[in-house]
UniProtKB/TrEMBL annotation:
All residue ranges annotated as the AB hydrolase-1 domain in the record: 84-319
Any Pfam family hit: Abhydrolase_1
Originating organism: Hermanssonia centrifuga
Protein's name according to its UniProt entry: AB hydrolase-1 domain-containing protein
InterPro entries named in the record: AB_hydrolase_1, AB_hydrolase_fold, Carboxylesterase_BioH
Amino acid sequence: MASSAALQCLVLVLPAVVIVLYVLTAFPHTPESLVLHPSLSSLPHDCRSWQIYPDDFFDGGAYASFPLGRVRYWLLGPQDGSRVVLIHGLSVPSIIWQDVAPQLALKGFRVLTSTDGGYSDAPQTTYDVSLYVTQLALLLQYIGWEKANLAGISMGGAVAAAFAVQFPHLVTGSIALMATTGIVDPGDLSRTSRFLSSPLMQIITSSSPFRLYLKHLANNETSIDDPFSELIRIQSAHLPGYNPAIASSIRDGPIRNLAPVFAQLGRQTRKSGGSALIIWGTDDGVVPYRYAKRVQTLIPEAQLVTLQGAKHDLTVTHPEDVVNHLSAFFKEVG
């Protein structure tokens, strides 16, 4: 009797088990589609962003389509000039190079600058070091550059350092780091940045009521006293991918914990005979000047240039100094 009951139970259960196994193996979960948030190019032309930072801000602009969305880039200067890549920082895109890129081009350099954010799509993903260096590697391949000099400001400096370490064959061996992040202590990050980049605040700031409030503030701004702040305000209000990208970059990106990368760059520079230049302002309130010595300790071969009185936006406040130092450095290293 026991065997008969077991057989009946098996007959009843077996079909259900077979059906479940069939469904699990025959109908796998569909991979999630990549979400691409739009860029400034999606905003109407009466939006003030087009006055501050149009898509033809520099000559030689074009778009490249990559797996993680469209990227806007500009190529300036003579085609046979020494190649230099300018990498911007966290919140303000290539407008930070407004007085540097054209001057380097006039001095005979072939200058590439692109925008992660601004007129580039914002993929819904983790904004870590790998994302930034991979996008840059794809862009260099897209435009056909086999090697280039690198110059990065703020977070762009950390991206440049990581890129040089991960893709040394794409770098001439010359790299300039300006007020670079990468080894920032958490205590030096503003409370506002830490608070707004928290997962809880991102849920709040992504909500419809909060976004309507941001749009209200942005749309009722009548003057452009500070174009950089205004551009940040517009992107924060109108581009749904902007705030999450900034928050992820602060949490996961090349702001902190890159001391091993800088140390590796130092060893790499020493071994290959390459050169490094560090430029820093004494009044930098975002990444304090004391970090200049820390970076130089990790990259002993690097030359340190100190700009007295310069703050974090030194490419805007001291463009002539920056251009002269970059030009002399890249010409010296060939």
